[in-house]
Fold these 4 entries.
Entry 1:
Amino acid sequence: MIKTTIRIAAAALVFLSGAAQAVHAQEDIPLVNTQSVNMEGVNNLSINCASDSVIIRESETNTLTVHEYMSKDRQRYYAKISRSSDSLHIGTGKRPLWPWSWKARREIAIPRSFRGNLRISNSSGSLSAGTDFSDYQTIDIHVSSGSVILSRVSARTVSLRVSSGDLEISGVRGETSFVSVSSGRLSVATIAGGEHGLKLSSGRIRIGALEGTAAVKVSSGNFALERARGRLDADVSSGSLTVGAFSGEGSVKVSSGNVSLDIRELSGDLRFDVSSGGIDVMMPPGLSFNLDALTNSGSVRINENGAEVLSAGGKSTVFRPIGPSPEWTVYARLSSGNLVINRR
């Protein structure tokens, strides 16, 4: 019994030592292969990161270069690069059957002159970029697992999809941008440009600042928008939506869940539709508006510096100015649930 225990302990020490060496070796993986492709005539570039660690850099030449670092040098492990007409695809070679001791990293240098369509997929592993992706036609980034950290991306059309894992981006600019998170986490410091579609079915989305016209749909999870300017149309069927420092116009529909909105100024009308759940609104006392409220059930309350100045519930209709000389109207339609406006 004692011998068996000693053998198990010794085996555990060997395993832990090997794991520690493998982690340390990640930084010292040797360069085993380099592939280069001339990008003349290429308009579509797709990169499949698979389970590797991938770093994207910028190249001053018109040549795309792939440097491959591997703990085991096997030709069958090398990246698969294929070209068809104006499209170039960088895939992943075969991987060991037992990958625990396997380490790999790819460094991809994309020519600065490339301004076509870029698609990046990450099924596991990690992706980071030491450069901005600027002035592309389209950028499509899909994270199904693992983690992706990027600086700034700009294109006519930007698509960010997270089905699991983490995606973190410093800035996004596009004439049209689409963000979808079905699980996992998305964090973007700024989104600017024209029209934006943001969808959260589970997981978390955090956006530091948003400018433009945005349509937000939350069916579950937590959506936090720290600052927003422009038009915002939100539909929350479950989960939570928090919007801070909002300036603009729009609509909020809540069939369940909770919405918190901090309004700094209005540039148009605002509409709230609540069938269940609740909406809490903060606004400065100097912001005037017309209140047009219709309640079938639930309630509408307005508080001024902590004191209640209006309360309506059950079946009721309210139309009255809040503050002097209001320019815009806040519409409230409640079949159930609650709307609370705090002016302070």
Entry 2:
Amino acid sequence: MKITNITRIVNLIIFAISLIFIYILLNKKDPIIFQLKKKGYVSCSVTLWKNNFPSKLYSYIILYDSKNNLLKLFCINTNIKSFITKSNISIKEEFIKNIANHNINFAINSFYKNFYRIIGKKHIIDFYLNININTLDKIISKFKDVQYNCYNNNDLQLIHQINIIKRLLRLTPNMVINACKYYSSIDTNISKCSFIISILRLKLLKPQYIFYEMPIKFYKQQLQLDNTNIQECLNKIYFCTRKLSKYSTRNIIIDIKNASNEARMAEKATWLLRGKNFDVINWSNNVINFEKTFIKDYKGNFLQALQLAKIFNTNTIITSYNKDNYADICILLGKDYKIYDILDN
């Protein structure tokens, strides 16, 4: 009996050593690890589209910053007029046009070619992952491509895009198995083995997520891409991978919006923050209500945004870069946040 137990223990030890050896061997040959060691970060573009509804296009750039253990997700707004061609059409409209005339690969290549005209060729992405939403539905069980009633609102659209990419990056073991099963249907330059290792590594590292909204502006009564702020956002913040401790911890100006439909929430949050020596310049009611609270950072003050996120118990920080915005950070209080004061009694 004792000999059998000893044999089992020995076999388990050998199995564990074998797994560690295989993991080390795979890491040495993994191109994603190679890029991390070379640059300190690795980037990947993700494009999602739907066959029977080609206007449904979601696109992202994902960057993992190993120095700070940050996962940065840049949501590309494909609806906004881009002015990247002679005709006034959006990225999505051009994508649909190319699908109608050519195959999907041509449409995706054309999409990123036009996108690089905006962001500059020095930010060429290391890897790509193009997935049909029908395939994603098979990988992620009960995936719902939810539409909002006020989908023309840019914040609602952004939250929708964030929820989709979160589902893709937080695959459960069953979903990883499904991904392996349908991997041949995914257009990518990442091997199946490297993809699985990357998903497992994310689960082990547990990085802090930060989302980036593509800067936009009003021009002649319509929205278009704000190329100046896009360049500054990418160069100064997104592709900047210096240690967070080197970032400025200066005092920031805060704006608070009540998006919970509950009375006085923004006012009560204002006095809470002022009691903690934060400079709150304004509070008001938001036009649109949100289920969850989130933080919008306009100037790249991530450390301060992270501090505020802890106070308001949210894990959603969105950098919506705009150097001309008066407030540095905006807090949008959703229905999930409750705060009480003496007047409530």
Entry 3:
Amino acid sequence: MVSKKTSSRIQLFVGILISLVFLYFAVRDIDPAKLGDKLSSGDYLWTLPTLLIILLVVFLLKAWRWTLILRPIGEFRVMQVFPAVMIGFMGNNIYPAHLGEFLRAHVFAKHEKLPFSTVFSTLVVERICDLIAILAYFYTAVFLVDAENLPSEMRQGAMALLVITIVAIFGIIPFVLAQEKSLALSRKILSILPEKLAGLIYGLIEKGSEGVQMARSPKLFLACLAISFLHWLLYGLMIVISLKAFDVVVTLPQALFLQGVTAVVVTVPSSPGFFGVVQWAFTTTLGLFKIDVEPVLAASFYYHLTQYIPITLVGLYYLKLLGVDVDEIRAEKNKEQPVEAEDPKPEEAIRESPRDISGDGTPEKPETVS
């Protein structure tokens, strides 16, 4: 039987191989001299600071959104969750198997003395909001872009993804409106499976159902959705600016179309940081608009690195500041039995009283991550 460590190494090797394949198809038709000229003559003077400012706003929006999703657990400030958010995205940049999500939940749960499973389950709502925003922009862009001979496979694939998303959303609604009854029904349905497999699946469903409870508040959910639409719009603006730096002018719908394709392909198992797949998404998608490949490839590296480098550096800074032991967390993930934070509160207590209650009946302010 293959050990967890060996399996992780195989997964990393396969991911790197997949990235190299995507990178090959992205660069196979380029003229290296033209690419070098584009990279050396790019307009970095105003585009670089602009991209970095937008990136900061995007991640502050991500942190703000997470404070709203965490509201059923407790009241948290943006700068309380910001370090964990940055550590999580840094983790996706340098560690395989999307370890970043696990890192983010673990760091925040440990610091705030909350159960890991409760914190981790809140990321379900985040993914739902992101998916809705990305697909809404993508489908709007599909009808607005002027690409000739848009491949039918791309339209069909997008339609299939839309159907899957709609089914998933309708599958989640019962857990929002009637959690206990839905869990009981799930347990009954899963009873036909082997006990161990049924227990594993039920555990995932139970954790996910905890995370979507904030959706019971339409006001909170709509606020999270609005933030998602705004921050993905800003990502689209970053694509426009990155291309403009190399004299490639695209419309916002074209950028949002590209953003949708990129968001899908980065879900493909690849190397940490998604190198290769992002470049393929840029060159293949904008190739539909008859744009030269060299400036597009240059823009793809620029767009990618202006996010990868600052996110990784800031994440590593917070990792060191908070004294996080990544090896320990990876070991816990490999065991698939994450250790709860020290002195966790029971889940029932968390639902009734998110934080310790002081003598005057008001929630005690959480400690600030510094």
Entry 4:
Amino acid sequence: MSFSRVFTGLIAGVALSPVAFPLAASAASIDINTMANGFGVIALNSFTSTSINHIEGPVYAGGNASGTNSMTFNDKNLSDVAVGDVTGALVVGGDYNGDLNSGGFGSIVVGGTVNGDTSNLTVPLTTGATIDTAGVSAAFNATATALSGMGDSTGASFDGDQNAQYNFVSGAADANGLAVLNLDETEAGAFFTGSNDLKFDIDGSVSTFIINVAGSAFDITKSFNNNAGVENIMFNFFEATTLSLNSTWNTSLMATNATLTTNVDVRGTFIVEDFVATNFEVRPFQSNSVFTGTLPAGEIAPVPLPAALPLALSGVIALGALRRSRRKAA
């Protein structure tokens, strides 16, 4: 029998024999809506707190996280959140640098180590965990890009009324309950500076209102004082690299390439590259929830390779060696 026939038969066996060559168990997929509806902060890279000692909701950091004070996370007792194969109220892909204190709820899962005092911690702590941080970043970046390409919904608009209050109007939702409004950089600059309040007029058909914002840098001084009925709104700063919140902000935002610095109290879900908290509280909404809308990108699942592929390749190599030895013997 020729080697080529043996090789062909082996490959056919790999393709046709589920007993000899089972598929590997795949990693759990990254569900962006589970994360966006669960975490108060999603920092795709780093999370840093320079002055406060607690965060009221769950936090995810893909890289390192640090706090200058003895920190407590999730003291509002929101549910743990799934990130692929792990679940926690604080999930850190790299190291956590700082002390962790009692008073919070839920599990803490760290991919690296905790460089600080944990002797007062009263919740479960896991270190050295495998966390799919690359999958999280890819999923949220793809979502931000996809949202930025959507056109305005029918009837969507923005304007100022006689009291110099700026209104965002959703218009009618699509078949999935999604409404979209787009602001260019000039429009956004006018809306986010000054001292006037921002308000929203959301149609009853809308379950998720996305406001796409063009522009690379914003120093936001306008207030979002009304935190009722805004849980399903998400601002998508798809071009931003720098954001600074300097007045009360009461709705969710996504800026997957930006460093966000907060100097005030904020409510909602904040999905950014780096999150820097200087003097603030990060809180859930008064309903004790974070973002409640549905991002349209869904989930990105890893594609498993056959677990027995290395075994199959070693078999091919062995057959090659056998063929060479027979040639020498002849």
